[in-house]
Amino acid sequence: DYSNSESYNVQNNSNKESDEPIDLDDLLPKIGEFGIYQKCLLWFVCLPACLPCGFCAFNQLFMTDTPDHWCKVPQLQNFSLEERKMLSIPRKEADNSTFESCVRYSVNWTQILQGNGTIVVNQSWPREHCLDGYEYDTSEIISSVVIDHMPMNIALELAGPNYRSFVTVMTCIFYTLGLILLSVVTYFLRDWRSLALATSVPFFLYYLYWFILPESPRWLLMKERIEEANKVLQSIARVNGKPFPEDYANKMQKQVLEQKQHGAKEAKTVSVFALCRTPNMRLKTCLITLNWCASEMVYVGLSYYGPAIGTNQYISFFLSSAVEIPSYLVCWVLMDRVGRRWPLCLSMVISGIFCIVTVLLPEDAENETLILYLISKCFISASFLIIYPYAGELYPTELRGIGIGTSAYIGGLGLIIIPFINYLGSSNLVLPLVLMGAVSVLGGLTALRLPETLHTSLPQTAEEGEEIGKDWTYKDCWSCGGPRRAASEGDSYENLDQLELTHAPVLEDEVSELRPIRRSSMKKLVRQSSTLETQRDTDGSLKMTYWF
Fold first, then answer.
1. CATH superfamily of 268-482
2. Where is the sequence biased in composition, kind Polar residues (predicted)?
């Protein structure tokens, strides 16, 4: 009869659910997605570990800084610095207002000083290079080298899927706070030795993390160290005040053994050439790498060029770091509402435009140049936050690691030319900004060719990755956001009471005993629809029966 049939189906579904592959993301909601354990790990371990990154990346900007300098004239040491410059150093012919750095007048100062009359400088005196060393302007910098010859991954893995965007944004913000703190430290420490010690020695305390930082459960499971992984997960459940599923360890042990037995048959060798094997995947790989390279080059280039803009290098570096924080917060909101493609495109194009516009300003417009630079730095910081998750969503699962690694590696190679581009600023202040602006605009425009990944399923295989964006047309350039989810927009993993499965028929004479079972499986159903791992038919429609 009907009741026996329903009972059989419930038991059958229960058995199937027990045979499903176990994912750590399925366990985290049960033991706490973002409980006390994850919060303590994030706020007291992982986020403080982001502060030294900014120190180590940019402290050399001030340690190796070259202050204003002039030729030393031993016979004039009894005069003040300004008097020595006025008497012994010729002015530059270009502006006649600044002094030469490596040239002095070649005259006999001993003989001139023996005269009782006023010394009159003659611009026609012969000149020579510095023979007695240099004198330096110590009004801003006392000493520099020239003068004297990621915890983040663990936080992401231990936080639930619903909180990983928050963790990513917070790590970026704390990295920027490290840059802001660096500008304050360099303002008060002008000696390069003191600066080197202050920006390195305190961070030796991070070696204490060895005793408190947990090992990654995902890595332990991948290495088949089940007992160690269970200890970490049980600690998370205990601190969060959640019960740890007793059957989880047995299921995981069984799954690892099965994967080990069938691993030889199913194992496939994945290489970087798999990214270029099919035409659509090859094009997306090239575009992702181009955008990654452009975004990283412009971000790092502008960061290094910050002290050269404006009248005070410390204030300029402070402002260039502070403008990153609002860009991260705005980008965090836009990515989940507008998508990835258009925010990436607009942020890079707008950043490039403001860089290029600086060529229209006069040479003495230092404040105006600084304002345009800060706007450009704000937008390029947003693109740098988008490109990493966007690339992870475009690459299929089996190629995601090698794909992101390849794009990041090639993007890092582009940084080799950044010092040469910035060096051009010694002759023309805005020339590096124009070049980096052109790179940013080029990268942003090519991002329009990439498919949108918002509200789309993550590709698992290379074949699925090839299908994403395969039917792209020029009309897709102007589309904003991805395809809508099958459920209503108000649906969420937490708000199950308002869930309406409009595509699935409901039996009017449903047995009351089935409701708790259907209710218990509803979270998994909604989660599948929210992460959009649902299979699609050939026409692009969702296979709703796959959910059940």
1. MFS general substrate transporter like domains (1.20.1250.20)
2. 1-15
